[in-house]
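FYI - complex with iron/sulfur cluster, inputs then prediction.
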Amino acid sequence: MQIAIASGKGGTGKTTLSVNLATLLSQQISEDITILLADMDVEEPNSGLFLKGELLRSEVKYRMVADWDEKRCTFCERCANICEFNAIAYLGISVMVFPELCHSCYACSDLCPEDALPMIPRRMGETKEYRLTDRLYFMESRLDIGVEQATPLIEQSRKHIEESSTENTIVIIDAPPGTSCPVIEAVKDADIVLLVTEPTPFGLHDLTLAVDTMQELKKPIAVVINKYGIGNRDVEKYCADKQIPVIGKIPNLKEAAMMYSKGEILVDSIPEIRKEIANIYQNIIKLTKSNQ
Ligand code: SF4
Ligand code: SF4
């Protein structure tokens, strides 16, 4: 099973839920199951701040980009005309390729009559995998500084998850925030997407955007309200109107905020939060069974 945890914006508690759900399940679930927590928020992965373990695997990730070979080029201009992403500029006496704009579609490379645009690997980031306990594994992908496209690294991270999991693995994805291509790529294989929000007008606004995106993708969704107790009840009213299940309400506790700021796991020390996270998992099971 794959559970993705997403949110319309950053800072709503997505990582708190991911880390604490993974930790709790690894302590409670039957012995033949392992948990893989995968941080796919590749621009700012921070699940690792809460977790310590033994490094199992570290892989540099590359994507293919077009590279101009001046010696072969006959300046026919075809490549610049075919590139849909404006990654090639034809300057009459030279051709410029902008690697950050290249989407690795191979069109120019295939079309060039002189083979003057070979595709070459370009480093974009790194994926690391750790064993935290016998039952809990953690994987994080991180974009290199200056690399702008997050989606190709997330796409490769999905393949990494496939290699590292079995039918007895529960995968928990800490997805990037927002509603654009990276989050869409991160939740592709998820059986259910939990949208984490806060009970405030801003929280509701961002939640509505995230709901629209997930409904377009036809993904089963459920909402978890973090910092329950502040703000108002508008998120609950919205979810009731839209018939979206609210499967958890994580209470707004001062001690939780203090522990979070020190990078500590909440389910190990705060019984109220442990109980609510366990309740969230039970609700996930019920929902995924009813969706089958
Ligand atoms: S298609 Fe090939 S030969 Fe034509 S301008 Fe581009 S690189 Fe040069
Ligand atoms: S591979 Fe595709 S995106 Fe990249 S430069 Fe060539 S045509 Fe443009």
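The two ends are 12 Å apart (CA to CA). The longest helix spans residues 271-291.
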